[in-house]
Amino acid sequence: MDSNSTPARRQLPTPQVCPKCGTSRLRAVYGLPKSELANDPTVKLMGCMIDGEMKEWSCPMCER
Fold first, then answer.
1. Which residues are CB-neighbours of 37 under 8 A, at least 6 positions away?
2. CA-to-CA separations, 12 to 1, 26, 53, 58, in angstroms, rounded
3. What is the DSSP letter of 17?
């Protein structure tokens, strides 16, 4: 793989609603984001420390 290429991402399902409060959830993104992700309102930046279970979605209202 070229050092400038982006690793393949797995396809995530369409954003779901939170089972606790019914709000549309945001896609959780880990690591150093590209500039377009930093301003994307459909994602939540989760940081670069990855340990244990990594959430795929995050609720902006109740953080579930």
1. 29, 43, 45
2. 23, 11, 17, 13
3. B
Query: What's the pLDDT score for residue 12?
Result: 54
pLDDT digits (tens, 9 = 90+) for 10-41: 555 555 888 888 888 898 888 888 888 888 99
C-alpha span between 31 and 17 (Å, rounded): 24
Q: Where are the domains of the chain?
A: 26-58
Is the confidence at residue 3, as pLDDT, over 70? no
Whole-model pTM: value is 0.61
Contact status, residue 29 vs residue 37, Cβ threshold 8 Å: yes
Name the strand (E) or helix (H) holding 27: strand 26-29
Q: Give every strand in the sheet of 26-29, ordered side by side.
A: 43-45, 26-29, 57-58
The Cα 59–Cα 62 span in angstroms is 6
